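Why does residue order matter? Because the sequence determines the fold. Keep that principle in mind as you read this record.
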Amino acid sequence: MLEYETELNEKGITLIAGIDEVGRGPLLGPVVAASVILPTNYYNKDIKDSKKLTPKKRDELYDIIMNDAISIGIGIVYEKTIDEVNIYEATKIAMKESLKNLKTKPEHVLIDAMKLDINIPSTSIIKGDAKSESIAAASIIAKVTRDRMIEEISEEYPMYDLKNNKGYGTKKHIEALKKYGPCPHHRKSFNPVTELINS
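Structure:
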């Protein structure tokens, strides 16, 4: 998990930001990205791809990372923009926003899968959240941030079962969409939301 970070450290590069996003696939809610700069040689065996952790463990690690990190930046792109520019572009906007919101400027950026047009040296890593601790930490921050936002939306719109599906197109969510129609937080450019609007 520290291979990329160690390689950069050996070249004298110590301020390394990991970037990851969550929420590209759901029918509802924003896409959220996080940038995280961890201290040099920092290692926590529990920090791994957020998808492999329980919600309880993610919450615990969220607090640890928030406390231990040198700097953390969050980028949020809401449904309206996702519908206007498409999810791929929205993801890039969220990632750049998270980078901009770091209080400390990194010397190098490790990005999960995406390539970003930025003025900082960067490395794009396929399945980066499973190969880099910095990216895995960013995946946890992004996931917990988005899940908490979805839980707030869920209180207002309980019929979509968002507490359990986090905005993804589960059977219950689709059934509720057909019965109640979309709410303001749905992505109008995503099927089956688009089909329902046009039907």
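Residues 16 and 108 are 5 Å apart (CA to CA).
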